[in-house]
Each structure stands twice: as C-alpha cells, then as structure tokens.
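Please go through the protein record below and explain what the tokens say about the fold. Record follows.
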Amino acid sequence: MFEAHFQTFDEPEHGVALSARLAAFREELARRTLNGFIVPRADQQQNEYVPPSEERLAWLTGFTGSAGLAVVLAHQAAVFVDGRYTLQAAKQVDGEAWTIESLVEPPPERWLEQHLKPGDRLGFDPWLHTSSAVERMQAACAKAGAELIAIDGNPVDAVWTERPAPPLGQVSVHGVEFSGESEAAKLDRIRSELDRLKADALVLSDSHAVAWTFNIRGADVAHTPLPLSYALVPTQGRPTIFIDARKLSNSARDHLEQTAQVAEPSALAPALQALAASGGAIALDSATAADALTRLITEAGGKPLRGADPVALLKAVKNVTEIEGTRTAHRRDAVALARFLAFIDREAPKGTLTEIDAVEALESFRRDTGALKDVSFPTISGTGPNGAIVHYRVTRASNRRIHPGDLLLIDSGAQYQDGTTDVTRTIAIGEPSDEMRDRFTRVLRGHIAIARAVFPDGATGAQLDTLARQFLWQAGIDFDHGTGHGVGSYLSVHEGPARISKLGTTPLKRGMILSNEPGYYKTDGFGIRIENLELVVEATIDGAEKPMNAFETLTLAPIDRRLIDLELISAKELAWLNDYHARVRREVRPHLDGPTQLWLDEATAPLER
C-alpha cells in the first residue's frame, strides 16, 4: 500500500568482503612506507551527509553512522564512535578485525599515544581533516615518537576499485520569496563581518554557507538540498563560486553571475595561492575548512585566520520570511503526522505492521501533501529493543514486527521548499508497562521544561540543557546525546552553531530554530524520545530588568497521553500539555477527513489529574 522513495532498507556490507578490503588497504599502506592511516567519516567540507564517493569509512569498516573515525595500523585497527552509535557499531563492525573505541572520552588521540611506536609513520589525507584535528593528532604522534604525514592521493581510493563517481546534482535557485533576502544584501553583511575580523577575504568551505549566501540549493547529497561547492569572498571586488559547471543550467548560471564569478573547483587552490602571495589575511571556518586549505595559504605566504565561519551565525538567525515559511511547513507536516499517527493507532495493535511499514506509511502521507522534496534524514523507526538504538536505521534484516505491548519510536523529518521539519513521537502499542509510563513521563517533563523556559538574552544551550535531564537524574538515569540541535531553512536538519547541550556555548538568538528532544533508552528493552522544534522569540515579562527570550513550539503533533503517569506530572506541566494539544487540534483538525478528525479529538482531549 505504501512505499518509500527517499530511503532504502538495504543491509550494509559486512563479513569476508570487508576483511579482504582491510588486507588490501594494509598492503597499499606498506607500499607507501606508512605504518598506519587515519580514515575519517568525512568529505572535504565535513558534511553530515556525504555522497557515496566519500563513504570511505563505511566501505572499509561496514560502519554506516554519520560520525566516526578509523585508525589502521599494521597489526591493530580501531573504529571510533560516539555514544549514539555504540550499539550500531557493535552490530556492523567485525569485532575480530577491529576494536570499537570512544570518539569522545577518551578521544582517539589517546589511543594513538598508546599504540604508535617510535619511528612510526602515520598518514592522513589533509583534505578530510580540519587543522585543529590535525594539530591534536600531531601532538599525539609526538608523544609516541611517531611522525604524522600528509598524503597526496588517499590510499583508500587506490584500493576502492568500484568507487562511485562524484555527484552532479543540478543546482536550483532558492528565490527571495523563500530566502527573504537578496544575495547582495547577504554579501554586504558578510563583508561587515570581514571588516570586524580584519580579513582580506573569506573562504566559504561549507557548502551550506555557499547555498545560503547565493540563494541556491542542490542535489549532491541525500536528504539535504546541498550543492557541493566553495566560494571565496574578498572584501573588495566580486566573490567567486567554485562549482562543477555541469551542475548549472543556464538560468542557475545567470543567477550566480549576477553577483559572482563562476569557476571550476580546480581553480580554488590557484585563487587562494594568488591571494595569499600578496600576504593577505584569509578567514577560514575552523569547523569545516580542510587542513589542506590552511597549508595552501601558509605555503603561499598568506595568513590563515581560523575561527568561526561568520556565515554560520547569520544563517542560523532566520528572517521573517524564513520563519513564516517554516511555520507553514510545520502546519503542512502536521496534517501528514496526524494521518500517520491515526493509521498506527488503527493498524499496529493488529500485530501485522513492521518498522519498515511505518517508515513507508509516514513518507507516503508526507508525499500526499504535494510539497515534499525529500525526507530530512533517514527515518528512525524502532520498536521494542530497536528503539533503544539512538540512531537506529531499519534494514530488511533488522526489520521487526510491531507487537502489542511495544513502544514504537519514530523520529523523522521532511524537506519542503519553505522549511525543514524534524519530529519524534513515542507511541504505545497496546497497554504500556508502569516502567514505560514512568520513563516517558520523566522525558516529557524535561521536554516541557525546555518548551516553557524563559532565559536572558545571551544565554547558551549549555545553560538550558540541565532542564531537560533533571527528572531523569532524579531516578538515576540519563540520555547520551544532546538535548537539541539547530535546524536550517530548506537546508541541513542539523545546523550549527547553536545547540542545547553541555557543549552548546553559542548564545541563543531570536530567530534561531532548535530541536527539543530529551529521551531515555533501555538497552534491549525500549526507547523513548519526544521531539518538537522550537523558535527563539522575545519573552514579555512585566518588570523585567533585561531582555528575555522564550521558545515558540513549531511542531504540531499529539503526544501520546496513554504513556503519561498523572501522579508524576505537575499541574503547570499538565496545563502546558493541554494547551499544546488544544492548539494542535485547532490548527490541524480543519485539514483532516472525518475519521481522522475523530481520532485527533480523542488523541488531544484534555487530561485531568
């Protein structure tokens, strides 16, 4: 009845083929007189989603998560992942060939210090690591008496004989009716930032920044309308965009040439060298700029200024047009979500649906809107123990039937031209246990604490993160991921620099959109997560002595009332939930058919203690 167009359920490769690849890779390292090599999950611009041609880590190890790193030595090999992927890596990676280590604490550098020998030559591809990452690896090598060596030509590519070709997705113009600001106006704001930085030019190494600045979108990677590209913005004169001309229609080229020169990617290095040769100070994004760019500038006599990309913050603060667009996108998405949740409530208790069925149904309801461009990430559909895998990706091999008594965790999002969505709901199939209700209610209370938060202008995500965890901590439990991430406007669903986490040091500004997604995961048991997107807005408080901010909830979807323990929840929290459900009913109900309206009425009915 349903089908998915935007994601597959194929099982990643594993087993003998991967062992053979590791052996061939070690032979290639020996041929190059290297004792080891670092293989990150990265492309040249540190994108979250990378094209198939850049999936070196997955090809070599079998690990398909969005963050990770491998180190291959002559007699040892390790895959480093963070807490989101510990369970996934254990299932995907051959434990006889690789050990699985922490990507965060302790970091990979500690492992290098312990396993490298004096005189070892450890190679890396300078186009796939930032300069700060290289400096950390350099220090680790120095402690071990080893040498870190930048390599021209990635040795993985030398043995990856069937490596896909780089993508050539067509570029589209993202008109001012969606972007809300012309390219010229954006360039003026960027140049003001360059004056502040005392820079002669800025390298836009993040394709999201290029797309935002020049009001274009593309189709080079899955789930994000990204045109892989670079740009060089000088303080004087026209900027240059470096992009494969085969991606440009005549109209796209005409659009770009109104404000910029257009050149092939191969022209980036000579352009940087020419600018650096005069001693220019060139700003680089420390989070996405490849170490190779820093080396090009330095070797040509220029001064690299590494720091935060000023475009990242400009892009994160949405203008009035983008905010109205995302509100419209969420209302549209809410209709699809209501139809989906009603379908699950009707069909899942029969015991015939699977995790894949849920993914396909949700995407189909979104396609019925007539506006869906893509899903914003592969839908996480996990029931029972699969729900406890934070970034679970269902495959035909792992696909589990949804049984009465299970929880179904479904985390999904959509890309519409006017906005990007991301929402998670945890659904009770049949009668939930007391433990499920307790954990769900604690997660919900944390979610509500963020949604109701009022905070001074300049507060950071790190200052709010504890609010989401407090009720879990009271029971001696926690979740091993951040509480929230930034979200783009028809761009990346995971957008910096702001986030709600203990690492979130960027002040939250009005116009930013962030997720609010606390959770709880019982290994081999069940998973719970509740996620809405929130817009930072001005808070009006009588007698306030400083500017204050709050959140406006954008997501409109029922939260499962059957999972709430009314003995745990406070009167104010219950009032928030009832008000939220009244708003969902008010804004979504008119767009539903009769049976779904009746379902929504019941799903959003007021709760009383």
